[in-house]
Write a structure and sequence with these properties.
The chain has 383 residues and is mainly alpha-helical. It contains 14 helices and two strands. It is a multi-pass membrane protein.
């Protein structure tokens, strides 16, 4: 047991951290390994890999992910900004590099191959971009001599421009919604908010018109009875097959023919083997993290911390909601993972970075330390 009397960084962290939020995130991380055991062996078998190939790799990635989350959660707000800036400066150029030397996977260049490990730089850009955007919006609202809003718009253009070139319209939509919400929370007027929403709708319409695979996914979604909607039909069939209580671990049959059962459609596999009730419990766990984060944001006095907490929470919550909505055929397929549950090293470690930052920013701190670490900095300084 960690004593309050010992004034060490670890004891200070333990007694100031939001333990319910921390344990909810840990439960999701552990749940990802358990559900990978249910969903991935059949996929590995189809690919002529070791039966527990994806499970072993999930555990392998979970170790550095847990270390990243713990290390980031011990930082103060200034340290969070510095970590976000360093992460962005490393992985945004890596996104551009992936366009030229990355392998083409399903028509997109989103990955860099580093030996036996594939890295998706955009996954690491997401949380760092949200933190930097929160800082710029906070500074822009606080100081007239800093063009924070203009810099946030420019930063958004840099990120979205590369995502569209990859192309990755799912991540573009996700980042766009969260960035727009931060802009609104940072003081954007309703009139301009309407214009921003109109621009987003126009972008979706343009993507439908000029990008074949976007149009194909939307057409499949609008015609669920068509022969082309194989993934959506199988995913929905999984929930019907599992019923309320599920068939039991390892007893699922639809997952044998469901593409991406260990990544995009792991929620459907969960429904077949563990049942709808278990899926609702999992949904409740995601909802708890989101509501807890938004509660902290609503009670936060510092502008940067408030916007960063809200942005990271929305990023986590929207990604979760989109993945589950796709699984139950409420949205077209997006190729987006279920946080901490779907298989994927880049996704797991980047989510750990984002949740580590969220846990750090929601820690209780004495007023003196809060003012030293969280108050906005002089013009142009992130650290």
């Amino acid at each position: 047991m960690i004593s309050r009397a010992k004034n060490t960084p670890l004891s200070e962290w333990w007694w100031t951290v939001d333990k319910p939020l921390l344990f909810a995130v840990i439960a999701l991380m552990v749940g990802g390994v358990v559900l990978s055991l249910a969903a991935s062996p059949q996929v590995a078998e189809r690919l002529d890999l070791d039966l527990f190939h994806f499970v072993n790799r999930q555990v392998m990635f979970l170790i550095p992910a847990a270390a990243v989350m713990f290390a980031v959660s011990m930082l103060n707000p200034r340290g969070i900004r510095r970590a976000a800036l360093i992460t962005f400066l490393i992985f945004w150029p890596a996104m551009i590099l992936a366009l030229f030397i990355g392998p083409e996977i399903k028509g997109a260049h989103r990955w860099l191959q580093l030996g036996p490990v594939g890295v998706q730089p955009s996954e690491f850009v997401k949380p760092s971009f949200i933190i930097l955007a929160a800082f710029l919006f906070a500074e822009g609202a606080r100081r007239d001599d800093i063009p924070g809003h203009f810099m946030a718009i420019s930063l958004f253009g840099l990120v979205v421009g590369v995502l569209v070139l990859q192309p990755d319209f799912g991540q573009t939509m996700l980042i766009g919604i969260v960035w727009g919400a931060l802009f609104f929370l940072g003081g954007l007027r309703w009139l301009w908010m309407g214009g921003l929403a109109g621009t987003g709708i126009a972008g979706i319409f343009l993507a439908y018109k000029v990008v074949p695979h976007v149009r194909e996914r939307i057409v499949k979604f609008l015609d669920p009875g068509g022969n082309e909607n194989f993934q959506g039909e199988r995913a929905f069939e999984s929930f019907v097959s599992g019923g309320w209580l599920g068939k039991g671990p390892g007893e699922g049959t639809v997952k044998r023919v469901l593409p991406d059962a260990h990544t995009d459609f792991i929620f459907a596999v969960t429904g077949e083997e563990f049942g709808i009730i278990f899926c609702l419990v999992l949904l409740g766990l995601f909802a708890f993290v989101v509501l807890r984060g938004l509660w902290h944001a609503s009670n936060e006095e510092d502008a940067f911390a408030r916007l960063a907490i809200a942005g990271l929470t929305m990023l986590f919550g929207l990604q979760s909601a989109i993945n589950m909505a796709v699984n139950v055929q409420l949205m077209p397929a997006k190729g987006m993972t279920l946080p901490f549950i779907s298989y994927g090293g880049s996704s797991l470690i980047s989510l750990a970075f984002g949740m580590g930052a969220l846990i750090a920013l929601t820690r209780r701190r004495p007023r003196a330390k809060l003012e030293a670490g969280a108050n906005p900095l002089p013009a142009g300084q992130l650290g």
